[in-house]
Specification:
The protein is an alpha/beta fold. The chain is built from twelve helices and 15 strands. The chain has a seven-stranded mixed β-sheet with strand order 7-8-6-3-9-10-11, with helices on both faces. A three-stranded antiparallel β-sheet has the order 2-1-12, with no helix packed on it. Strands 13-15-14 form a three-stranded antiparallel β-sheet, with no helix packed on it.
Length: 413
């Protein structure tokens, strides 16, 4: 194994010296009812994410120059995946980082510069720097394989899977192998929401799937390859290291917050229904201690709950900074009801209907990109209910379920 710096050698030596004899490889899941499964079909078990299954991926990475696309969510027990790889003699030469950076501290949408990872001494190439997208040719020339270990949330507008697809395209274009170390989808029990209208393809919508697609990162990778979703008809040399003991009925609780403003499972369960506020003049709680668990606006009717967004880590300049917002607190909402509702537009409809001023400017063009079509906004303005709007996308959801079936790596129950 080669070491890029003396610092990296010392770092690996310290890791090996301090490593315990055994570490936990799994994350606890709870035996709760999943949206598309009966209550007794889910049992409590220990899941082993792909990154923990070194016996499967070490042989294919041994002797290769490896670029690791990961961030703070890439963990095996209490260790980062890069530590596990280095301990196992895998020659990691470059780190690649998605939105929020390799250590996961940057704001949503904040451009992150490339540099050196202070802990490992390895070079970090940011794939969310604001410049030309993709991995530069000189980086691709210096590696043999890209390993991907990212904990996705499971919503179409969450950007980690988009970055993975761009890495697949770079690997395919340069004749390199890509290995996805799979992780559970915390929203993988549900398929719901409109399928993306590809004329609205953007940085928050890359592939023609519903808002809640129910796929893991490994399944997305396989489907993108099989359905021709990579640019220029490319096909990646793809291997997926699957999660052990996972089903799509598993209620999986993330051991690490995937991004600064999705701090707990309640926020993650609400995210597919509240993210559309990012395409309005209202606040979804960024700049508070409860982002994605509340919504409000200064011009909403006062219903006994209010908050004032402030500048803080992860939300340095939140929408409606310093302004008193009246709205709704969802921190005590029933989790099972949230999950069962899937994509629930009742919150955005409630906010729109309770604006005392500014209704004509409530929505902006980003809303259409998030929801994935131009019709939903018009239907809300026309007074349609959440149930009426949901009925309009059900046929597309059913069709997508059939289309994705060949790419599922895990049982539905």
């Amino acid at each position: 194994m080669k070491f890029n710096t003396i610092r990296q050698f010392i770092y690996l030596f310290m890791l090996l010296a301090a490593a315990p004899q055994a570490t936990s490889c799994g994350s606890r899941v709870t035996a709760e009812t999943a949206h598309e499964a009966e209550p007794d079909t889910v049992t409590t078990s220990e899941l082993h994410p792909g990154a923990a299954r070194t016996d499967l991926y070490k042989p294919m990475l041994q002797g290769k120059r490896v670029a690791l696309l990961s961030n703070h969510t890439g963990t095996v027990g209490d260790k980062h995946t890069v530590d596990v790889m280095l301990e196992n003699g895998i020659n990691v030469v470059t780190l690649l980082s998605p939105e929020h950076g390799f250590r996961g501290t940057a704001d949503a949408g904040q451009h992150v510069k490339s540099g050196i990872d202070e802990i490992t001494g390895l070079p970090v190439k940011s794939l969310y720097s604001g410049g030309k997208r993709g991995i530069p040719a000189d980086v691709m020339d210096s590696i043999d394989v890209i390993a991907v270990d990212l904990q996705d949330v499971g919503a179409r507008f969450y950007t980690y899977h988009i970055t993975m697809i761009e890495a697949m395209e770079a690997a395919a274009a340069h004749g390199k192998k890509i290995v996805v170390l799979d992780r559970p989808n915390p929203l993988g029990m549900t398929v719901d929401g409109p399928v993306l209208d590809m004329k609205l393809r953007s940085g928050v919508g890359r592939i023609p799937v519903p808002v809640l697609h129910g796929l893991t990162m490994g399944e997305i990778a396989g489907m993108a390859n099989g359905e021709g979703w990579l640019k220029d008809g490319l096909k990646a040399d793809l291997t997926v290291i699957p999660v052990e003991n996972y089903t799509h009925a598993t209620r999986y609780e993330l051991p690490v917050a995937p991004s600064p403003n999705l701090r707990d499972m309640k926020a993650i369960y609400l995210y597919p229904s509240l993210c559309y506020f990012e395409g309005t003049t209202a606040s979804v709680g960024r700049g508070t201690d409860f982002p994605f668990m509340a919504y409000g606006h200064p011009s909403m009717r006062d219903r006994g709950f209010s908050f004032t967004p402030k500048s803080m880590a992860g939300a340095k300049n939140p929408p409606l900074l310093g302004k008193l917002c009246h709205g709704v607190d969802l921190r005590d909402a029933d989790t099972d009801s949230i999950i069962a509702a899937g994509v629930d537009l009742s919150y955005i409809i409630d906010a729109y209907n309770n604006m005392t001023a500014g209704k004509t400017t409530f929505f902006n063009s980003f809303f259409d990109k998030l929801i994935g079509n131009e019709q939903t906004r018009k239907m809300i303005i026309a007074g349609k209910t959440a149930e009426e709007i949901k009925a309009g996308w059900q046929a597309d959801v059913d069709s997508f379920k059939t289309r994705r079936a060949p790419y599922l790596l895990y049982p539905l129950q």
